[in-house]
Write a structure and sequence with these properties.
With 375 residues, the protein is an alpha+beta fold. The chain is built from 13 helices and 17 strands. It has three domains: 85 residues, Rossmann fold; 60 residues, Dna Ligase, domain 1; 186 residues, D-amino Acid Aminotransferase, Chain A, domain 1 (2-Layer Sandwich). The chain is 30% helix and 26% strand. Bound molecules: adenosine-5'-diphosphate and magnesium ion. Magnesium ion (MG) binds next to loops.
Length: 375
């Protein structure tokens, strides 16, 4: 076990790194953050900020020299950096999980090889791949293989005839073409797995998106117990196949014809797990610290129905969600990430709403949004 007082390293210093750092500090650890962005939100909460490119070996060597263990807060970190760190310190999760999560082609192939159902997909790497890709059902979505997040790097493809144009739009970068699933529901399974291979699950969150970006997450979800168990089993298969240590989120689709499909995984705490900060005994960030330091994993029990609402950059630019309304509401816990610049779609913060029920939480959202509609 790595005892409190030691220094923990985190690669990436966005809001997830910030919340990791706060959890680690509360447990008595020091945190060093490695992030090339001078304004990285996590830097504020860290004892040291290594503000260098991820590939800067001198800085990496210094970082690795004095941290007891290293974790990540995003998947897009050069593989060479991850391997470098893993050769020197415990890196949790390890490079293999991150290598797969960095590339939608590897990720979808990995799910398929595990026998998990996904949306029909095809790879698009060169012009010669176009005819085969046209065989998947349309409408479809073309997604860049790498560097996509929050719906970025995705283009809708109405029909096979549109495919070549859509690929042009993505600069003919390697991509994954995916049939668009008629969705009944989206949800995510969040788990933590220890160095000894023990896994604990959080209550499943139902996720609602707007324009490809998570808008809100609600717990408890309304899935049948059987469905929930099926999803948890699938997520555990993924974690075990990767010998995963740390916090893992797996996003699922439930199709209109009631099929359970794996969408993607996040090898780190997840936006849809922010509700755990207030609604669970131990948050996903507490769990990330615990898995990293070999402290026993904590209790994931839900203490209250909860809803997490993202605050995106457009709210800073136009009158939208009323600032005062959510700052003053007794059941709303605002989190602001300290980002100085706002742009549309940028995650600036989130609200956790604790309520007596799902419906009550949704009513609060409608109230904050000045909307008549609850749901
Ligand atoms: N094949 C699909 N069918 C229907 N909706 C999809 C599909 N792929 C993505 N989406 C929608 O877009 C959102 C973001 O896509 P996702 O693949 O999860 O990428 P990101 O890495 O940007 O989160 C999903 O949560 C879902 O709402
Ligand atoms: Mg996603």
């Amino acid at each position: 076990m790595i005892p409190p007082g030691a220094t923990l390293g985190v690669l990436g210093g966005g809001q997830l790194g910030l919340m990791f750092a706060l959890a680690a500090r509360r447990l008595g650890y020091d945190v060093w953050v490695f992030d090339p962005d001078p304004h990285a939100p996590a830097a504020e909460a860290a004892a040291r900020h290594f503000c260098s490119p991820f590939t800067a070996e001198t800085a990496l060597a210094e970082f690795c020299a004095d941290v007891a263990a290293i974790t990540v807060e995003r998947e897009q970190i050069p593989l060479s950096t991850l391997v470098y760190c893993a050769e020197r310190r415990p890196l949790r999760p390890g490079p293999e999980a991150l290598r797969i999560a960095q590339d939608r082609r590897l990720e979808k192939g990995f799910f398929r090889d595990l026998g998990l159902a996904t949306a029909p997909f095809a790879l698009l790497e060169r012009t010669a791949d176009l005819p085969a890709a046209m065989q998947i059902p349309f409408p479809a979505i073309l997604k860049t293989a790498q560097d996509g997040y929050d719906g970025k790097g995705q283009v809708a493809v109405g029909s096979a005839a549109d495919l070549a144009r859509a690929w042009q739009e993505l600069g003919q970068r390697p991509a994954l073409l995916e049939a668009r699933v008629a969705l009944r529901q989206e949800f995510s399974v969040l788990l933590a797995r220890s160095g000894e291979g023990l896994a604990v699950f959080y209550p499943i969150a139902e996720n609602r998106h707007r324009q490809g970006i998570l808008d809100l997450s609600i717990v408890p979800c309304e899935l049948s117990e059987e469905r929930q168990e099926q999803a948890r089993r699938a997520a555990l298969r993924i974690a075990e196949a990767l010998q995963y240590v740390g916090v893992l989120a797996v996003e699922f689709f439930l199709s209109a014809d009631d099929e359970l499909l794996v969408n993607e995984m996040a090898p780190r705490p997840h936006n849809s797990g922010h509700y755990t900060l207030d609604a669970c005994v131990q948050s996903q960030f507490d769990q990330q610290v615990r898995a990293l330091t070999d402290l026993p994993l904590g209790d994931t029990r839900l203490l209250s129905p909860a809803l997490m609402l993202n605050l995106l950059g457009e709210l800073w630019q136009e009158p939208g969600l009323d600032w005062h309304a959510w700052l003053c509401h007794p059941q709303v816990k605002p989190y602001l990430y300290g980002k100085s610049e706002a742009w549309p779609g940028r995650k600036m913060g989130h609200l956790n709403i604790l309520a007596e029920s799902r419906m009550a939480a949704l009513r609060t959202v409608a109230e904050l949004r000045g909307s008549e509609e609850v749901d």
